[in-house]
Specification:
By secondary structure, the chain is an alpha+beta fold. The chain is built from three helices and four strands.
């Protein structure tokens, strides 16, 4: 997700992957299957965010 900072469209949310809906549903999901391979530290952030923000893992993200 991103917010436009240009004069035209200032403050407009860009959300091509539905992140806003996931946040409302309190779901934590991967952008693509290779996310943890690309950056293994993401697994630690996923666990930390899950606890800190009380997010549940999407089925494809199950760490167990």
């Amino acid at each position: 997700m991103a917010i436009l900072l240009t004069p035209r469209g200032l403050g407009e949310l860009i959300d091509p992957y539905g992140g806003r809906a996931d946040l409302r549903a309190r779901i934590l999901r991967l952008l693509h299957p290779g996310s943890f391979r690309d950056d293994p530290t993401r697994v630690f952030r996923a666990a930390r965010y899950s606890c800190r923000f009380r997010l549940k893992f999407a089925p494809a993200l199950s760490l167990c």
